[in-house]
Specification:
five-stranded antiparallel beta sheet; four-stranded antiparallel beta sheet; 4% helix; single chain; 1 helix; Immunoglobulin-like
Length: 101
């Protein structure tokens, strides 16, 4: 799930990322990896809730498109079902999620 809240005082948008537990199948950790963190697989961990869902809030600059994916337990890549679009990658049959702000 993605939720966007545009800030009135800055050219930024607060983006709320949420992955429900049924999507991550009992994962221990999930990271959001994308353009906004130079595809660093460790720098943007999501918080695991007691419910088993994972959440994260990020402030991102507006008037940009960002490609990203979720990395589950350091081995499985998942796309965001509610992304604004998909972008091709150099890997066959692999796409990144896109959020447009």
């Amino acid at each position: 799930m993605l939720k966007k809240t545009y800030l009135k005082t800055k050219p930024e948008c607060k983006v709320y990322f949420k992955l429900p537990k049924n999507v991550v199948n009992g994962a221990e950790e999930v990271h959001v990896v994308g353009d906004f963190n130079d595809w660093d697989e460790e720098s943007t961990p999501m918080k695991k809730l007691k419910s088993g869902d994972f959440t994260l809030k990020l402030n991102l600059d507006v008037e940009n498109d960002y490609e990203f994916r979720y990395l589950v337990d350091g081995k499985e890549w998942i796309n965001e079902e509610e992304a604004d679009g998909l972008a091709g990658t150099p890997y066959p049959d692999t796409y990144n999620s896109v959020i447009s702000l």
